[in-house]
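chain below, 117 aa
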Amino acid sequence: MSDAELSELSVADVLPIGICIEGVRYRKFRLRAGTLRDSIRAAEALAEEGIDTTEATSNQLRYATIAQKLDIENLGRQLTLDEMLDMSDRDTLIIEKADDEIEKKLDALSESLPQSA
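prediction:
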């Protein structure tokens, strides 16, 4: 998939509350479509938190994966799972809405691709 196609498979928005890291509040974000690499890194992030992936809840896996796909504007690094879990419920709802929008874009892309023989 080209970079142009991947950039279309993202959603940018503003968190209503934002996340405060080292005294700075960040509100603008971009969430992109996930990759297999994101899933693997999410499992590794859970392990770093001492959570066995075979015993992790579906929410722990979901948010660990979202943290991998989430770019917080001007943060300059990847958001950690622990930071993701400290976000407000209201902010999380906005991120989940963005994730749903990306899934709709992926569905549309999948339907538009020619069927292989």
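DSSP finds five helices and three strands in the chain. Helices lie at 3-8, 36-48, 58-69, 81-85, 89-112.
thats it, cya
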